[in-house]
Automatic annotation (TrEMBL), chain A:
<keyword id="KW-0812">Transmembrane</keyword>
<feature type="transmembrane region" description="Helical">
    <location>
        <begin position="262"/>
        <end position="281"/>
    </location>
</feature>
<feature type="transmembrane region" description="Helical">
    <location>
        <begin position="9"/>
        <end position="27"/>
    </location>
</feature>
<dbReference type="GO" id="GO:0022857">
    <property type="term" value="F:transmembrane transporter activity"/>
</dbReference>
<feature type="transmembrane region" description="Helical">
    <location>
        <begin position="83"/>
        <end position="109"/>
    </location>
</feature>
<keyword id="KW-1133">Transmembrane helix</keyword>
<feature type="transmembrane region" description="Helical">
    <location>
        <begin position="287"/>
        <end position="306"/>
    </location>
</feature>
<feature type="transmembrane region" description="Helical">
    <location>
        <begin position="210"/>
        <end position="229"/>
    </location>
</feature>
<protein>
    <submittedName>
        <fullName>ABC transporter permease</fullName>
    </submittedName>
</protein>
From TrEMBL, chain B:
<dbReference type="GO" id="GO:0005524">
    <property type="term" value="F:ATP binding"/>
</dbReference>
<dbReference type="GO" id="GO:0016887">
    <property type="term" value="F:ATP hydrolysis activity"/>
</dbReference>
<keyword id="KW-0813">Transport</keyword>
<keyword id="KW-0472">Membrane</keyword>
<protein>
    <submittedName>
        <fullName>Sugar ABC transporter ATP-binding protein</fullName>
    </submittedName>
</protein>
<dbReference type="InterPro" id="IPR003439">
    <property type="entry name" value="ABC_transporter-like_ATP-bd"/>
</dbReference>
<keyword id="KW-0547">Nucleotide-binding</keyword>
<dbReference type="InterPro" id="IPR050107">
    <property type="entry name" value="ABC_carbohydrate_import_ATPase"/>
</dbReference>
<dbReference type="Pfam" id="PF00005">
    <property type="entry name" value="ABC_tran"/>
</dbReference>
Amino acid sequence: MKRIFDTQLIGPFAAMVIVALIVALTTERFLNPGNLSNLSLQVSIVALIAIGSTMVIFTAGIDLSSGSMVALLTMILAQMLKFMGIPLMLALPMILIVGGLLGLFIGLITAYGRIPSFITTLAALIAFRGLALTFNNGSPIFSLDPALEPIFYGKLAGIPLPFFYLVFFYGLAAFVMNFTKLGREIYAVGGNPAAAVLTGINVRKVQTTTFVIAGFMTAVGAILMSARLNSGSPNYGQTLELQAIAAAVVGGASLAGGRGNILATLMGAMTIVIVQNGLNLNAAPSSVQNIVLGLIILLAVGIDMWRAEISALMGRIFGRSSSGSAQKVKKGV
Amino acid sequence: MTTATPLWEFVDISKAYPGVLANDKVRIKLLPGSIHGLLGENGCGKSTMIKTLSGVQQPDSGQILHNGQPVTISDPQVARDHGIATVFQEFSIVPTLSVGENIFLGNMPRSRFGVIDWAKVHSEAARVLAEMDVDVSPDAITGTLSVGEQQLVEIAKAVAMDARMIILDEPTAALGEDEIERLHQLLRNMRGRGTSILYVSHRLDEVERIVDEVTILRGGKVVRASGETEINVSEIVSAMVGEDIGEHYPKEQNATAEVVMEAHGLATASGVTDASFALHRGEVLGLGGVLGSGRTEIARALFGTDELSAGQLILNGKPVRFRREMDAIRAGLALVPENRKYDGLFFNFRASGNITAASLGGLSRLGVLNLKAEEQATHDLIRDLEISTQAEEKTVNFLSGGNQQKIVIARWLFSDSDILILDEPTQGIDIGAKIAVYKLINKLTRAGKSIILISSDHDELLAMSDRIAIVQHGAITRTVEASDLTHDDLVRASADTTETNLEEVFA
Ligand SMILES: Nc1ncnc2c1ncn2[C@@H]1O[C@H](COP(=O)(O)OP(=O)(O)OP(=O)(O)O)[C@@H](O)[C@H]1O
Ligand SMILES: [Mg+2]
């Protein structure tokens, strides 16, 4: 437990709480039960996709493809349900598999073709959106299946289902990152790829695996997106990839790889969504929302970069820790 | 000498890091025209002191006097303005730039129009390198040089500044005997010109040869001050460690007749021309040779990093072909690389993650890691190798150089490889830790593992190897019993044919 809830979570958690407090104090309707359950709906899609984006970032890669992949997958799902008569219970797992395969494809080209992931996923960002347009002459497909909507809007014991998806997938992701060989290898590859090779870690396989996970989680997000609007559209998911990356960064993941906590990404996503929600409730135009989002990312990275300076400053303000602690560390073990 | 005014005087310098008091009221006086040794075990605070003196960090308390006047060295530029040049323990060269650019990084010669004067960069760099007797082109890309050559470039940076005070933090860790001798000559020349030199090294034999005065630190405090200590290795060692150390090289004979690995005429594009040898179970086979002779390249060839262009490797009687490192690791080989910073450590991990990185498969069941076992193994190894216990709590970037090196070795002790290639395993670690590594070598060979040892420290190589293969220009010219060889033989044998033309090597 100590492992999962380490000190890396304190910053992102504090940021989330502070942002929530500010919004709660300035906006009456923020704490309405209706708004709160709305929040967990809003955060769910981006937060689930961000699991994959974060793992890719941990290996020092980047995934720009998820937004377009969402559009493509909603169109494929819509096609299956509406025009191909494939039953929902079959279509959903198929979408998850397609997502994983698209991720595999990107991962293989990146890792074995030795092309930087920034390039491969940028290419995918453009190409997937194009592919999405080839379905149904580029028009959205509506009213897919009445059984689809409850996946997003359904409730269990009064709690929206997406809340449970978040708990499940983030629980799983935290387990993988902290308790499994794969998780350790992901951090190792991001920390020092040259050393990883010399210790016998299959760097390419690890990189590819993170893209498969990213593709799979994007498919989960795409299913929720379709369920939310009971439709598929080539226009869905615009800038979703950037929001997912922003969630990871606000959560403290280092773009240089090797450092970060997957649960912090959830807090990063929450922070972003709370700000958006606050601005929405105050009827701020979307231009303002984008500017604020940009500033948050800058601030989060800045705080991370200036950590040493900030703690030195805190030290000066609140008094230095006595050098007696040196002895404590030595005796600790 | 003792009456001369110190050029620099450091009074009661203290510096704490979170959880450690790395320097505790350290006092050092540096006289002009004198080489001052700063010695002590790993983690005793030498590099910390040096960082403070060169303006990289500020002391928590204490005073710095320059010619008797208090000064503040607020950043590295101020240090440079005061005539202080520093060669840091961790390289500060830019691998993608040329040697000349690195030498003048930060103060490039410029022409009248403010444009960089490349002709001057080239000629000045060439002059400095020639003064140092270093055979490297100013136009070579620094990252393509060997670690030893990079170290020389690092030193050339300080020489080019023509400083009044030079600080060297383990400058010889990656150098061979030849280069060390040349560096010493250079330092003696500078001393003759009145330069103050502060010198950190774990090679006590060279300390004895070159240093005029010593200050010894233990646990951040000065235990012997300048002028107080005779410059005598055993006395220095007991002051450093706080107790007497017996045998420096506790060699055990564990070699058997059984051959585990055979190499026949190995060659690679990276410079191995003809390497043949047989390695026995329980044996330590030393590779002796000068810097750049191809020892590291032979290691890379054995480990599958560089593809063989000719030759055959036989493991336990079966021919094998390693296409990448992973194949070699699966077959039971391990490589402790020469450059721990770039090839060895995961700076985002604590000791545990670093130690188990090569054994994750054995440590997990169905992909789930046994973290308890990991914690226990880490704890044991930290105890056995006398690694700083901070390593359990902190990521390894906070550890001193010597502790980092021990962690890289610990990784391969923990893995169950049968053949270990140790490339400069004791580089930059203190005498206590060196002996710990030697004992580990014994423990490994006793358990039937075999070791290929690469070391530029001739005494160590002679004492710890059973046999020594002499490497020249990428070829193993002969293999002899270590006991039949003296220090001088080895120096001569490995230098023998330095006259043969170099083109062959790079052909
Ligand atoms: N940036 C840092 N943050 C926290 N602790 C540090 C930092 N740098 C060094 N330390 C700690 O300070 C102590 C002194 O380290 P230092 O690097 O000065 O040792 P050293 O004498 O140079 O050792 P070595 O011979 O191994 O190079 C060690 O306990 C080390 O772990
Ligand atoms: Mg040091």
